[in-house]
Specification:
The chain is an alpha+beta fold. Helices cover 29% and strands 29% of the residues. It is built from seven helices and 19 strands. The chain starts with a strand and ends in a 6-residue tail after the last helix. The N terminus is likely disordered.
Amino acid sequence: MTDLTPGGFETTALDLPGWTHVYSGKVRDLYVPTDESIAQRLGQDCVLVVASDRISAYDHVLTSEIPDKGAILTQLSLWWFDQLGVEHHVLASTVADGVPEAVAGRAMICKKLDMFPIECIARGYLTGSGLLEYRDSGTVCSIPLPDGLVDGSRLETALFTPSAKAEVGEHDENITYDAVVQTVGPDIAERLQELTLRIYTRAEEIARSRGIILADTKVEFGFDANSGAITLGDEVLTPDSSRFWDAATYQPGQAQASYDKQYVRDWLTSAESGWDRASDEAPPELPAEVVAKTRARYVEAFEKLTGGSFTA
């Protein structure tokens, strides 16, 4: 069955016994159980989160896919969930525990959460949209920073720089901490900030010990009605949600060698692609070389971080 997502791109829902498709985002497809025994066995309402091989850039879902990307994102997220020591949404991740065989390795059965409409971003280095704002006003999300910083500068203290969630196909908008307070209230805002910075600090130390710099990352949280806890959801600390740089070649003041999808972004904005980012046209198909090199960077990030070998 082919469905049209809120972002306007087509995705094919899988026929998974015991589950029915309810939503597709840029990368992930969500299924809910049709068999009541599944939720009963796990002890609460749940959702099957399946990571596809789709890749997005500049608010577009590309026609090209990156082979094994869904499995890499899922397996790396599972590894990170085990390292962080915070409440998370994963209930099961193996066929023995109920994951359908057809999506084994790239799916998780997760707690159904009431997600907060906030992208929780932690920045330990100045780059990307933060760098653009800094060059214009000396601030990032209205937080003043010292003079003289350059692309890739390490910040003295990691910053909580949230954004408002946008619909699929729309651009997330950076917001201030006060805007978060107005959206979710002061107590939850404080908790989201504390959890985000705790996760970043822990992950940055782990990544650095493995030769990778975690420049920034996006995490998402929801409320678990079953436990009453604010819970880490979605993916965590993957090349899709984070900027990973090679520590061996890191040098402030220049673009950094990255393990994320920057390779795809760079090709799309190059003369070779022929695509005008400011136009209404969809991006072109990626060349086979760009697909292969992007996959290789995802695999390398997985293996350097986890210390294990990736197997699809």
